[in-house]
Amino acid sequence: MKEKQFINENIKRAQLEEFLNNKFARAGYSHCEIQRTPLSMRVTVFAQKPGMVIGRGGKIIDEMAVILKEKFGFENPQLDVKEILNPNLDAGIVAKQIANSIDRGFNYKRSSIMTIDRVMKSGATGIAIRVGGKLGGDKSRFEKFSAGYLKFSGNTAETLVNTAYSRAQVKLGTIGIQVRIMIEKPKELMILEQIDKSIKHDIAEGKAAEEQIKEMEKIEEKNEESTEEKKEEVPVEKKEEVPVEKKEDAPVEKKEEVKEESPVEEVIEEVKEDVVGAVEDVKDVVEKVAEAIKEKIEEAVEKKE
């Protein structure tokens, strides 16, 4: 008995969906939701133009409440209307737009490709359009058009993917249109994007550190070349020899020669010490960054597996 009850309820919902689709076709009707409450049956209509569903002073809503009660057997029905702010992200409206363009004589490929571009520009994560029927000959066939990231199975497909169907009537027969649109990105994809960004950032920092090391090495080479040139250019002062009268009695005292370091050599040694210390610091930073990049890549590989 319960199975028959569920079947009858689903038949009523399908009939109601078809009735509302024909009734509010000009209002940009998308779909409806039915909620059973202890006091009433609430029917929520999603449309692009809610004013055409409500009518002046709520006249159309009052008429629809009577129809839902008499024709579909809903007890104490309540009709609500919600506006679809972005119709390009609603699969029902997009499917009907493609069907209407095919009815008017447009090529299904052109209308599908234009629709995909429009939907992706509106901010969708992914879209897939499947068109089937007699598309250009006696035999029926189907073609797929897709863009972006989209899930076709699992919990993600059931919760984040909006699916809708529509039909177009041409001379050769009926053409069916199926539209799938994913608006939000799944958590797994967002985590992978963050990992990719962090890895790219770490790699860029490592390259910058390598460039700094190369620049420091160039500066060190230039300093060494300049010190060698300065050594060659520094003139050696020759002291004039003063004749000294030799005394037979007084012994001549020998003075030890003291080498004085030139100020140029002292400056060169200080610069070398500073450059060597800076190069060692930069190398330590590069090694730490490389280790961090390896750890993040290993974690990302483990998560993907």
3D architecture notes:
The protein has a 4-stranded antiparallel sheet with strand order 5-4-7-6. A 3-stranded mixed sheet has the order 1-2-3. α4 packs antiparallel against α5 and α7 packs antiparallel against α8 (263-304). It folds into 3 domains: 2-85, K homology (KH) domain (GMP Synthetase, Chain A, domain 3, 2-Layer Sandwich), CATH 3.30.300; 89-185, 2-Layer Sandwich (Ribosomal protein S3 C-terminal domain); 186-227 and 264-305. It has 305 residues and is an alpha+beta fold. The model is unreliable at 257-261 (pLDDT under 50). It contains 8 helices and 7 strands, in the order αββααβααββαββαα. A hairpin with a 7-residue loop joins β4 and β5. 16% of the residues are buried.
Highlighted features:
alpha+beta; GMP Synthetase, Chain A, domain 3; Ribosomal protein S3 C-terminal domain; 8 helices; elongated
Quick take:
The protein is an alpha+beta fold and 305 residues long.
Please give the radius of gyration in angstroms.
41 Å
What are the segments in which pLDDT stays under 50 over at least 5 consecutive residues?
A: 257-261
CATH-assigned homologous superfamily of the largest domain: Ribosomal protein S3, C-terminal domain
Q: Tally of extended strands?
A: 7
> Order of strands across the biggest sheet?
5-4-7-6
Order of helices and strands: HEEHHEHHEEHEEHH
**Residue-averaged pLDDT:** 79
Q: In CATH's first tier, which class of the largest domain applies?
A: Alpha Beta
Determine the fraction of residues in helical runs and give it as a percent range. 40-55%
Query: How would you classify the quaternary structure?
Result: single chain
Q: How many helix segments?
A: 8
Q: Under CATH, the topology of the largest domain is which?
A: Ribosomal protein S3 C-terminal domain
Proportion of residues in extended strands: 15-25%
Principal-axis shape equals: elongated
Structural class: alpha+beta
Please state the second-level CATH architecture of the largest domain.
Answer: 2-Layer Sandwich
Distance between the termini: 47 Å
Largest sheet: 4 strands, antiparallel
Total domains, how many? 3
